[in-house]
Amino acid sequence: MDILDEFTNYLRVERGCLENTINAYERDLKKYINFMNLHRKDILNALQQDIHYFIEHINSQAPSSRARIISSLRTFYYFLLSEDKVKRTPLENIESPKIRRHLPFVLSVGEMERLIESASPNDFINIRDRAMLETLYAAGLRVSELICLRLSDVFISENLLLVRGKGEKTRIVPFGNPAKNYLERYLRESRPQLKRAKKTEYFFLSIRGNRLSRMGFWKILRKYIAISGIDKRVTPHTFRHSFATHLLEGGADLRIVQELLGHSDIQTTEIYTHIDREKLKEAIRVYHPRG
User: Fold this and answer.
1) Do residue 171 and residue 31 come from a single domain?
2) Residue 88 annotated among the catalytic residues of the structure
3) Domain closes at, from 82, 101, 133
């Protein structure tokens, strides 16, 4: 159940899921956990055969319910994989349910600038916060990738980050000068005060000198959402969605955006082109005489 709590926290903070969605994930996973406990199986050592047995167990449910449960399990095991709690997912060769994908929510360039600039760098805490917001947007990071950055992963003079993504995959991501300026200020003015006498290689630190948690970052972000006055549902993942969308709208090649995001499948990245198409359709509706 501790793992389930960690997972729901990940859904809330990193994926930006609504509470109803999180509750649905919980219900699905509790069915699976109870099934595994009944058969004295460890979810961290589950085999593909165990998943097949569980699917047979829920076979009496409606097809849409089965599809949702399998999708919940897939997301759960990819989370465990990203946290190094399992070496592989037991759902690798199980056919994915056909679920309609929703377009991710993004902020406009102006809204993103307003949100980032709401972290006014007037003390060492705000400098840290501004550096995190600038970096999250500049490099399109997941919040887990941001808070797990180490000193050795940040090459400020070269404007590069070594990012450790899902499934122990690493990628090199460049960032612009606004992020560079605040990363330099953070190292010079903030991190020494946060670190105190502690020994840690994590780049961004909490007020206690420890690595920031997902929930810790989420609380920081909510503060600046309120200050900025943006009346929209913004989550840490909104930065990543906005990063990808703004790059594509600016003319970036889809393959380059795929590389920057660390997507193994180009189809995952292609969802952002749909947002661009929606803007094209909106332009026709608004400006064309027969729109």
Assistant:
1) no
2) no
3) 82
| 240 is a catalytic site residue | yes
Q: Within its chain, how far is the Cα of 182 from the centroid?
A: 22
Residues 165 and 233 in one domain: yes
Out of 142, 164, 191, 246, pick the active-site residue: 142
* Amino acid letter, 12: R
74 residue type, one letter: R
At 235-259, the pLDDT tens digits run: 999 999 999 999 988 888 888 889 8
Q: Which of 12, 130, 237, 241 is catalytic?
A: 237
Tokens representing 24?
Answer: 């649905």
Alpha-helix residue ranges (DSSP H) falling in the chain: 2-13, 19-38, 48-57, 63-82, 109-117, 124-139, 143-147, 177-185, 191-195, 214-228, 236-249, 254-261, 266-287
- How is residue 260 written in tokens? 């920057």
Same domain (yes/no): 159, 216: yes
* Residue 166 among the catalytic residues: yes
